[in-house]
Amino acid sequence: MPNETSKQVLLNVLRHPQQVQTFGLKEWDLLLRQARRADMLATVHQWLTRAGLAGYIPDKVEKHFTAHANLVHANQTAIKWEVAQIYAALAEVCDPPVVLKGAAYVLAGISAAEGRIFNDIDILVPKQDINKVEQALFLAGWSAGHLDAYDQKYYRTWMHELPPLQHMRRGTVVDVHHTILPETGHLKPDAQKLLSAAVTAAVRDDFSVRVLAPVDMVLHSAAHLFHEGEFDHGLRDLFDLHRLLIHFSEEPDFWQTLVKRAEVLDLVPPLFYAARYVQAILQTPVPVPVLESLNRLFPTTPITRLMDFCYQRVLVSDHQSCRRRFTGLAEYLLFVRSHYLRMPLRLLLPHLIRKAFKREAGKAVVDNEN
Fold this sequence. Notes:
Strand content: 5-15%
Low-confidence stretches: 363-370
Number of strands: 7
Strand order of the largest sheet: 3-4-5-2-1-7-6
Shape: globular
Order of helices and strands: HHHHHEHEHEHEEHEEHHHHHHHH
Number of helices: 17
Structural class: alpha/beta
CATH class: Alpha Beta
Radius of gyration: 21 Å
Helix content: 55-70%
Number of domains: 1
């Protein structure tokens, strides 16, 4: 019976890509299955190519990688074009928005974009401009569709973004943020500090965009991953963090600046977990003084051990071969935690009750139709 480590083919290749030199078709097949489930096919291809191992990929396997790489290229070309349309739509109503997450990686030419498909385009604008931005995007073809009064209030009063806006013809989705975490949440990062520190990335000679500063980009990625309650793509998102840290750590004083910035933005907890798990799971070389500083700012408790139990089970491929004992329990605990971090109990309990009734009502409608 293979042990749990030997089943984690994708994770092992991300840690030590040179091991593919000894792979037979059985190992390549499992790697493809795990990578596809993690939405990392083209990422793995790029990773192996960067390591000088492309020559070890069998032709049968290469076809799968190439097909997905073509999709990635088309997706990233489309993202650049869509961001240009968003900038044009908002040119008269506000300063250029800050592009967030995956689209920012693409536009800034950061290695974390290699092999990645990004479904939505996220932008950050000042809260006072949010209504003008929504109206301008509406005139340019984006719409939130039909939401009931409660869902409208959920987004506009409690959350950190507008309801997702989908273009009526092209189907592209824009998420308009006025901060990076829900306003009802435990952590309160100051969006104005993020906007003020944003930097310019040149896409073409005639077009540039604003993206978060390097340390802020890492902190946003960490905050996003460690406030989530669903981890279908948890390993992919952790690997994004790994590549961001490797990419930006070449800058002088990056690590010290990162920790100080986390204090300023009230984002020490997600940075603590990010540093802890990129090192433990992906063996990212996080400097010991950084880990020590984070341990002083966010001391280890029994809850930390519980988080280790959970995250070590969910930050892997979502393929069945990667599931361990109690993975389902870990998923449930992190789902509950994400809601607790998002809203206080006085709001959370009525919200969950309403969602449960709405879900049951939807099931009843489907049953009646059948």
